[in-house]
Amino acid sequence: MRNRLAVLLVCALPLTLVxxxxxxxGAPPAVALGSVIPAPVEVRADxxxxxxxxxxxxxxxxxxxxxxxxxxxxxREATGYRLAVVRHAPxxxxxxxxxxxxxxxxxxxxxxGRKGVTIRSGGNSGLFNGVQTLRQLLPLEAPWIVAxxxxxxxxxxxxxxxHLDLARHYHTPDEVKQYIDEISQFKVNHLHLHLSxxxxxxxxxxxxxxxxxxxxxxxxxxDGVGGGFLTxxxxxxxVRYAAARFVTIVPEIDMPGHVNAxxxxxxxxxxxxxxxxxxxxxxxxxxxxxxxxxxxxQFVEDVIRELAALTPGPLIHIGGDEAHATSQADYxxxxxxxxxxxGKYGKKAYGWNEITQAPASHTAIAQYWNTxxxxxxxxxxxxxxxxxxxxxANRAYLDMKYDPxxxxxxxxxxxxEVRTAYDWDPGTHVAGVPESAVLGVEAPLWSETLRxxxxxxxxxxxxxxxxxxxxxxxxxxWESFRTRLGAYGPRWTARGVGFYPSPQIDWAG
Length: 509
Ligand code: IFG
Fold this sequence. Notes:
Blueprint lengths: L1 H11 L7 H6 L16 E10 L5 E3 L5 H15 L4 E3 L8 E6 L7 E6 L2 E6 L2 H14 L7 E9 L5 E7 L7 H11 L6 E5 L15 H4 L18 H12 L4 E5 L7 H6 L28 H17 L4 E3 L10 H17 L3 E5 L12 E4 L7 H8 L3 E4 L2 H4 L21 H5 L15 E8 L7 H8 L2 H10 L5 H18 L14
Parallel strand pairs: 2-3, 2-4, 4-6, 8-9, 8-15, 9-10, 11-12, 12-13, 13-14, 14-15
Antiparallel strand pairs: 1-7, 5-6, 5-7
The structure holds ligand IFG.
The site of ligand IFG has 9 residues, from loops.
Organism: Paractinoplanes aksuensis
InterPro entries: Beta_hexosaminidase_sua/sub, GH, Glyco_hydro_20_cat, Hex-like_dom2, HEX_bac_N
Keywords: Glycosidase, Hydrolase, Signal
């Protein structure tokens, strides 16, 4: 209704009063060229516009067909039009062109004009990033007019990730796919799956089958709900689904702590050979692999080997947090033997920042999850070569309550409203960890209190968009972000995403 009225008003005005471009494309664009999350590097609006119609074609070379498929899907979801994909545009056709060039992988340039849209990038991930930007420029209702001009964009950090805990509560492949659909729209490009913990084991390992037949059985999980596990076929399918949206899966097996479920399944993994009771509470730090037993390292190597064979991505996360039941000497000895095993199977080791106690971590990636601004052990490791992914719990932990009234989540790291998740800089956050050592950011979502995709959405959105902008955009501007976020809200509503309507934001619609 709102747009039809606008068109009537435009036609009623004397022509001289109406800006030419508006006449060319119908009503003025509903979405400003810069109203994108994360904020692009350069936005140059030129007052023109482009109208998507059912006859608009997608022009793409065979190499970009995987991106063209995502673009067709996005336009169909937005407009209902199923656009044709062609190798070459018929003359004078209305076209959205995907044009590979020789620029950087994730960088892209988006040009919108009367005759059409062109997205240029050196890689399909960059073309995909351009498509996510274009998707946000399409209005929520007809006429499907996109603001004209040019966007030049590139990420500040290469690693922009989320983490999802499948161990405390097993979320199904379909729930994980829904989460991937949402995170990829904000140019998030890694999904770290927490696949094992005290309460459950969530990935099939052929050489140790009881890990899932016992550790992934019904009733394994916090409060005795949320049992289940990913078969290898389901894991491979998730990897494929994520890759088609340019999200790399990073699997985590947490050790030497957080291993109660594995020890219930295989008592030989304890030092006394006695199976501990299964746990459905939320305590941490009470379990440890038996550092002095050789079977421990056979187990660890078998798991890493099978996980590496399942994972096309370059990283395997080996946990390392809260090993309070492991002496420091044993912890370092364990990491010294296990970190190199990741390299033996062709992957790069990634672990919670406690791994930096071990010299072998200097070729690994440390995930910083503490709440402080200094960490001498981490700074020393960085000086020796360790790279860092920033997940400060008081900024990036999406399982923290928004405020004391939030039904879900925890509060040990403090309350995290949207602005708390937005106002920090990964390049200067920890003393002795310069931007050159920071690969990017990751927003963990632990599932002690989660039970459904609705719970995931409520805790992740809108705060994940803040972390996505912190990881992508060159700088932060809270007033600009909160305005763009407020305008974005109705898109979640239209998609049925149950986001938290933070009082810090003026939500449109
Ligand atoms: N700390 C534990 C997690 C989880 C979390 C909940 C890390 C690295 C608290 N370890 O965060 O297992 O229980 O907020």
